[in-house]
Structures are given as structure tokens and as C-alpha cells.
Amino acid sequence: MSTARIYQRPKNAMQSGRFRTDRWVLEFDPAERQRPDPLTGWAGSGDTRAQLRLNFPTLDAAREYAEREGIAYHVVPAPTRTLKLQAYADNFR
Fold first, then answer.
1. Cα–Cα distance between 29 and 24 in angstroms, integer?
2. What is the pLDDT of residue 67?
3. Residue 19: which domain range?
């Protein structure tokens, strides 16, 4: 039986916007270790589920999908956002 984690997409650290942070992602946990390819040296494995990342509009939709397909899952709570309030005048003190 495969396991998966459901989490909310974090905000991109390089931009100020919060585009697509309201969506939820179902991602499968790796079933086997990655190992280097003997020819190229790249890391890889035979686990094709590691390549899947399913997007859902709500947490309930992601949970319903996992339960319907018989996938064991755990929900990773979204981190709380903390705002750092500062004034422009603080730059000149």
C-alpha cells in the first residue's frame, strides 16, 4: 500500500505574490531509495509514483480522492504566516 502526503503549496520566496497558494497537493512518498545510474551517474529509481503530483482545489477534495483510491495519507498543516511590519522611516534611524 502506498502512502502520500497532502500539503498546501507555499508562497514562492522569490516573489511577493501568493499565486496558487490556495491549492492543495497530493504527493506520494518514495517507495524505494534513489540510486545512481551506472551510465550517466544521475540519481533515479524504478518508483514511477514519485513523479506524480496531483493538485486539488480544496483539502476535502484531496482527502476524498485518497480515500476513494485506497491511498494512506497524512496531512501536513500549512505554516502560519507571520507579518513583519516595518515603516519606511525605520531605514533612516
1. 16
2. 95
3. 3-92
Sheet holding 53-56, edge to edge: 53-56, 24-28, 3-8, 72-76
Which residue carries 506520494 as its cell?
28
pLDDT in tens, 46-88: 888 888 899 999 999 999 999 999 999 999 998 787 878 888 8
Domain count, the chain: 1
Strands (E), 1-92: 3-8, 24-28, 35-36, 43-44, 53-56, 72-76
CB neighbour list of residue 29: distance below 8 Å, 6 or more residues apart: 2, 3, 4, 5
Is 31's pLDDT higher than 90? no
